[in-house]
Amino acid sequence: MGAVRSLATNEGAELVRRCRAGDGAAWEEIVQSYSRRIYNLAYRFTSRADSAEDLTQEVFIRVYKSLDQYNPKQGDLQNWLMRLARNLIIDDYRKRQRAPQDEAADDLEKHQYHLRAAGGTVQREIERRELGVQVQAGIDKLSPDLRTCVILRDIEELSYQEIVDLLKIPEGTVKSRINRTCEDFTSYASSGGVRAVGRRQ
C-alpha cells in the first residue's frame, strides 16, 4: 500500500474531477499514491505506528472533504495535498506537546508503510531499515521546535521560505534551529548516503 509516485498536474486534476463525480477508483488511486509518504511524515513526528496510522486517515478525510477547494492553476495535487497533510500533522504534534502522553516509541522496522521498499536487494533493505531506525533515534532526541524544522527541511526537503510560510516564524529562526542540530544529528545520519542535517543549501 502507498506507492511512492507523484501525479502530474493534469493527471491529478483529472483524478480530483473524477472523485468529485463519485468515482471510487480515482479516490483509491490518490490514496495509493500518497499514503506511504503521509504515513512516514506522521511517523517522524509521532514515533508511533498507531498514531501515524490514525493521522494518515485523518489527513485523507480532510483531503476528501476539501476536494472542492483544489485548484490545479495554483499548483499540482501533490503540493496541495502535502500542504494539508503537514498542517494537520504539525497541529497534532503541537497539541501533543502541550498535553504529553506517556507513550513509548515504536520500532521503525515494525511499521508496514516504511518497510515496503520499491525493489532492491535484501542487504539494501536491511541497511535501509537500520538507517531508518538511526535517523528516527536522532530525531527523537531533538526538542519540539528543532524536530519540526529538521523534518520539514531535511526529510520533506522544503525550502527555508516554505518552512517560514508554514510555521509563521522568521527565516533566521528557521536557519538557527537547523544549524543547532548539525553536530547532534550527524552521528545518526552520516551513513547510508543520508546527508547531515542542515547542510543542504
At the fourth level of CATH, the homologous superfamily of the largest domain is RNA polymerase sigma factor, region 2, helix turn helix motif
Could you tell me how far the N terminus lies from the C terminus, measured between alpha carbons in angstroms?
33 Å
Q: What is the class of the largest domain in the CATH system?
A: Mainly Alpha
Biggest sheet layout:
none
Task: Report the order of strands and helices.
Answer: HHHHHHHHHH
- Global mean pLDDT: 80
State the secondary-structure class: mainly alpha
Strand content: under 5%
Q: How many distinct folded domains?
A: 2
Known CATH architecture of the largest domain: Orthogonal Bundle
C-alpha Rg, in Å?
A: 17 Å
pLDDT < 50 runs, ≥5 residues: 108-119, 191-199
Shape annotation: globular
How many alpha or pi helices?
10
- Estimate percent helicity: 55-70%
CATH fold name of the largest domain, please? Rna Polymerase Sigma Factor, Chain: A
Number of strands: 0
Overview of the structural elements:
This protein has 201 residues and is mostly helical. It folds into 2 domains: 1-106, Orthogonal Bundle (Rna Polymerase Sigma Factor, Chain: A), CATH 1.10.1740; 117-201, Winged helix-like DNA-binding domain superfamily/Winged helix DNA-binding domain (Arc Repressor Mutant, subunit A). The protein is 67% helix and 0% strand. The chain has 10 helices and no strands. The chain has helices at residues 9-20, 24-46, 49-65, 77-98, 112-115, 122-140, 144-155, 160-167, 171-180, 182-189. The protein is globular and about 50 Å long.
